[in-house]
Design brief:
The protein is mostly beta strands. The chain has strands at about 5, 10-15, 20-25, 35-40, 45-50, 60, 70-75, 80-85, 90-100, 105, 110-115.
Length: about 120
Amino acid sequence: QVQLEESGGGLVQAGGSLRLSCAASGVTFSRYSMGWFRQAPGKEREFVAAVGRSGGTTYYEESTKGRFTISRDNAKNTVYLEMNSLKSEDTAVYYCHSTNRNGFVSWGQGTQVTVSS
């Protein structure tokens, strides 16, 4: 079973930056595609970014393109989300997500990101 643990959330002013990390354990990390989702108060959870198993392919939600960068280090079993030029609308709980070729999905417990305007 995949265990995912996020870290790096916090309070930041608009225009600032944060780097989220998600450490995976219990599995062969390189067999999993990884992603980030977020959920703001009163809203549904939404896709933010994803990275393929080797790190060579990335996908972004439209509003995060050019501001967020997803990457992974398979040697450290960790996926990252570098967030720059943060806006108040980026405020949410950010969740790490993993999926393998069999469709097995796991979620982390989430980390709070709050952007003050």
